[in-house]
Amino acid sequence: MRCSQNLQLAGMQRGSSAYRILLAKRGRRPVISALAILPNNAPISLHTICQPPAFRLHSAMTISSLAVLGAGQMGGGIAQIAAVSGINVTVFDAFPGAIAKCQGVHKKSLSKFVEKAKMTQAEADAALARIKFTDKLEALAGADWVVEAVVEDVKVKKDLFTKLAAIFPSDNVVLATNTSSISITDIATAAGSTAHRVVGMHFFN
Fold first, then answer.
1. Where are the alpha helices (DSSP H) in the chain?
2. Is 78 helix (H, G, I), strand (E, B) or coil?
3. For position 108, what pLDDT does the model report?
4. From the CA atom positions of the chain, what is the Rg in Å?
5. Neighbour tally for 162: CB within 10 Å
6. Cross-sheet strand order for the sheet of 131-134
């Protein structure tokens, strides 16, 4: 199967209630599927790609840098997949010890891929070099796309999205939540007048 180099979210509307991007790994190459969800849950677009150097939203926006909130199992996994795909990632976590643990998980995980000949050592080193960590929320500024993957607590998430809306004032930056149980509409209210930028982006572990 030939895979396109960029993710085209064809037919997706910025004003839609929400859309989800589903990510999985098959063999050596990460495979990403994007599914748009309308308010009545009718899918309007599905597109699959392999190892993209960047994401594309419509045809005018190229995603080359990603901000991930949360260095736990889910956030760390999202960061690793993005880095392996060639995207520069900054991971935020203020919980003591979370960053060091995440770094250790990344090194161990990529080392296994090298041992199994699913990637070269140079590729693993390059992926690790693309991931930066911070305990300062403001340090995420400048990213093209934001993914929140913190604890499933609506108050915590809404507080973060209020701050994210201020840190990322550009209407071109998508603010995504990885929640699987909390109303995306409820979370989006915390972004105020920029609530239309908040989407659901659930990753399967």
1. 73-84, 98-115, 121-129, 154-167, 184-188
2. helix
3. 97
4. 16
5. 13
6. 131-134, 88-92, 65-69, 145-148, 174-177, 198-200
Q: pTM of the entire structure?
A: 0.73
With beta carbons less than 8 A apart as the criterion, state whether 92 and 69 touch: yes
- Whether the Cβ atoms of residue 165 and residue 190 lie closer than 8 Å to each other: yes
Taking the C-alpha atoms of residue 61 and residue 38, their distance in angstroms, rounded to an integer, is 22
Q: Pick the closest to residue 183 from 158, 149, 148 (CA basis).
A: 158
Question: Tens of pLDDT along the chain (205 residues)?
Answer: 233 323 333 333 333 333 333 333 334 433 333 333 333 333 333 333 333 334 344 444 678 999 999 999 999 999 999 999 999 999 999 999 999 999 999 999 999 999 999 999 999 999 999 999 999 999 999 999 999 999 999 999 999 999 999 999 999 999 999 999 999 999 999 999 999 999 999 887 6
163 exposed, middle or buried (CB, 10 Å; 0-12, 13-18, 19+)? Answer: middle
CA distance 92 to 51: 24
Distances, alpha carbon 135 to alpha carbons 10, 86, 90, in Å: 35, 23, 10
> Catalytic residue numbers?
202
CB 15 within 8 A of CB 65: no
Cβ atoms of residues 67 and 147 within 8 Å: yes
